[in-house]
Specification:
383 residues, 2 domains, 8-stranded parallel beta barrel, alpha/beta, single chain, 15 helices, TIM Barrel, 8 strands, 42% helix, binds iron/sulfur cluster
Length: 383
Amino acid sequence: MKETNTYLGSDIKKLGFGLMRLPTDTGKPDGKIDIAKSCEMVDAFMAAGFTYFDTAYGYSGGESERAIKAALVDRYPRESFKLATKLPAWHGASSEAEARAMFDTSFERTGAGYFDFYLLHNVGSVRTAAFDKFHMWEYIAELKAAGKIRHAGFSFHDTAELLDEVLTKHPEMEFVQLQINYADWNSGGVQSRRCWETAWKKHGKPVVIMEPVKGGMLSDPHETVKAALDAANPNVSYSSWAIRFAASLDGIITVLSGMTTIEQMNDNISTMKDFVPLSETERGAVDNAIAALNALPGIPCTGCRYCVEGGGCPMNVVIPNIFDAFNRKLIFGDEMAAKFGYAWETNFGAKASACVACGHCETVCPQKIPIIERLKEAAAAFE
Ligand code: SF4
Ligand code: SF4
């Protein structure tokens, strides 16, 4: 591993409060954020010694940033917590001035005075071009020099190769936020392991982990996965396995959990208050859980992207991304997550139904996946 003294997380406990799913008055994501319940959760979190909070310009249409002002910033001394937020230049900004103004909006909504961690939100795919075009890399350095942010980084969803490219081009970035969980550890679409190796082992950049429970899917996984974990310890929650797996990695600033209820928070607090990394036996149980997941009837796409890159699909069908979303239904039985994933991923390229059956992708796919047929199934399931 590259020598580094930029381990920004040495004094931060390994559980962070993700603020994208705060409790609402209706119990549904589009309801009004319940400030009283949010205060109760913030209090429980802080009382247990945890200090890292993660919001974003876009969470709940900006209401997440307002809620954390009311529940945290206005109620606790500023130096007692770390606040992170993110700037999505690719979404809703049509000029450099509009993209820069997103910081001012976050600054005003949170009333935080400064951000401990500030991120370019969701770098990767076609989104990276917006950060380049609007000079957001330079802007974030400017904000740091002005003392408005303490640490500059970015969240990322794409391949390890592209992450390597971005970090090589922007060595000034101090940390990366990555989707890491045991289900995606060796997956081709998300590439958790390869992205973590690229950020931490190759570039020495510490990592904030997001989606350790894969949007909640690992809190209630398939029966065969449960059996693999229960064999080692049947008395702990399935979420706790997922969070401890993530927190046991090297180079981790913190592991974010997007908590909605005080019960979830209490479970996470009891897992992480006196965090113990996975033992060898426990890590073996997680490996068995990964094997059980891999044996489920998913599409064996490794995300190599041969089918889409370098003169790949003429219709720009986002094949590996579609298969990743489809696998949420096939492997986890999670229709909602699969539909949401499909709608999101196909924002950045063509849908499955755009396939004209030219056959190119099938000639290059090393996994010999009947891509045309599986795309038809995906179109029928999601369009
Ligand atoms: S068969 Fe369909 S998905 Fe494959 S390369 Fe041709 S158009 Fe794209
Ligand atoms: S070539 Fe095959 S394995 Fe590789 S990304 Fe495309 S579908 Fe997946």
